[in-house]
């Protein structure tokens, strides 16, 4: 019996201070593929820390090239061949896929799309370019997988009807066992309502809108809330200055990145995610798993998981007054979530289910 060999190419940096849902998926998927008698090699643009990935065969471009270029070079220099190639966070329908298929004698290529679309869609030039790419390069990819129904629809919309029959959905899932669970949904009248943001600090995450929304609140409401922001990014200093300018900096604590999010979430009453772009947010799944409801926008796959007044509240992206209204009504008790939000995640969005469905694609 010939050896089955699998390559996984991920445009994702491995870091010690960010052991998140995708890291847990990658490690669990690696074990599951090996249980199916695959030898598995993983390719990343940079590997800052390998501790969590003990036993996983990691190859790093060390930031010197794109992970796709690094993988193609690896195939040529080492004369490697693979049974299957799976990609995550990479550009769809680029020439890379045909080059890889030929160079690695690859039988099956599966492209998993985690990439969100702009709030108002791509400009016409980009849309035409995407259609051309779909027409020219779709044959090299055997399956396109979106991490939400929204993503799968956009794959077909971007690349054209030629990819429709080989496009499917596998929802993101999380390891619910690592999350400390909040005991109940009751707000403690003796303390401030504690909100949390877990996000990369860039414009598309909309945290600047949250800071502006705080300015619409009455002083009485402001005294009864606090928001902790976990994450880092290019907008961090600008957000801090914006909070000072709006005189709401006392309401916010910037905590930086943390690998302890699974244990920290249960200390908060609500997650706020005012994002402009999303496919299917792991942060939302993680918050719900901790029995912490979510306040977020109607973009991407968010409405596929957040049900109004059941496990969270939705508002239109960039609608700062709507966000302010939700926060105010939550703080004063006018809106509340009473159901345990973790049950749905354990049933429908588990890591084991996600891994099993991805492994099934290899058969």
TrEMBL record:
What are the entry keywords? Transferase
Quote the SUPFAM superfamilies the UniProt record gives: UDP-Glycosyltransferase/glycogen phosphorylase
Q: Start and end of every Glycosyl transferase family domain? A: 183-334
Q: Enumerate the spans annotated as Glycosyltransferase subfamily 4-like N-terminal domain.
A: 19-177
Which Gene Ontology molecular function entries are recorded, alphabetically? Answer: glycosyltransferase activity
Asked if the record carries the keyword Transferase, the reply is yes
PANTHER family documented for this protein: SULFOQUINOVOSYL TRANSFERASE SQD2 (PTHR45947:SF3)
Q: What is this protein called?
A: Predicted glycosyltransferase
Look up and give the organism this protein is from.
Leeuwenhoekiella blandensis (strain CECT 7118 / CCUG 51940 / KCTC 22103 / MED217)
Q: What is the lineage of its organism?
A: Bacteria, Pseudomonadati, Bacteroidota, Flavobacteriia, Flavobacteriales
């Amino acid at each position: 019996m010939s050896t089955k060999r699998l390559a996984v190419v991920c445009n994702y940096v491995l870091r010690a201070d960010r052991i998140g849902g995708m890291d847990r998926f990658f490690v669990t998927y690696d074990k599951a593929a090996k249980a199916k008698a695959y030898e598995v090699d993983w390719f990343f643009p940079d590997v800052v820390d390998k501790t969590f990935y003990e036993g996983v065969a990691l190859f790093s471009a060390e930031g010197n090239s794109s992970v796709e270029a690094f993988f193609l070079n690896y195939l040529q220099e080492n004369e490697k061949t693979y049974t299957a190639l799976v990609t995550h966070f990479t550009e769809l329908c680029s020439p890379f896929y045909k080059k890889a298929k030929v160079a690695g004698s690859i039988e099956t290529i599966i492209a998993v799309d985690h990439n969100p679309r702009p709030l108002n869609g791509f400009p016409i030039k980009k849309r035409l370019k995407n259609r051309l790419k779909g027409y020219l390069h779709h044959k090299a990819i055997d399956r396109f997988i979106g991490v939400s129904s929204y993503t799968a629809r956009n794959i077909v919309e971007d690349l054209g009807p030629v990819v429709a029959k080989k496009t499917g959905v596998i929802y993101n899932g999380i390891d619910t066992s690592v999350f400390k669970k909040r005991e109940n949904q009751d707000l403690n009248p003796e303390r401030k309502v504690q909100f949390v943001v877990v996000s990369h600090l860039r414009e598309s995450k909309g945290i600047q809108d949250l800071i502006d929304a705080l300015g619409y609140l009455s002083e009485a409401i402001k005294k009864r809330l606090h928001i902790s922001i976990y994450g880092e990014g290019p907008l961090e200093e600008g957000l801090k200055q914006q909070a000072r300018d709006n005189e709401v900096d006392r309401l916010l604590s910037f905590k930086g990145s943390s690998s302890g999010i699974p244990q920290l979430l249960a200390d908060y009453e609500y997650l706020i995610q005012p994002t402009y772009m999303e496919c299917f947010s792991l942060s939302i799944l993680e918050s719900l798993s901790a029995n912490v409801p979510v306040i977020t926008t109607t973009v991407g796959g968010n409405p596929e998981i957040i049900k109004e007044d059941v496990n969270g509240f939705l508002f239109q992206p960039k609608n700062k007054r709507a966000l302010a209204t939700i926060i105010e009504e939550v703080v004063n008790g006018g809106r509340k979530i009473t159901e345990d939000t973790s049950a749905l995640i354990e049933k429908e969005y588990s890591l084991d289910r996600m891994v099993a469905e991805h492994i099934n694609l290899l058969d």
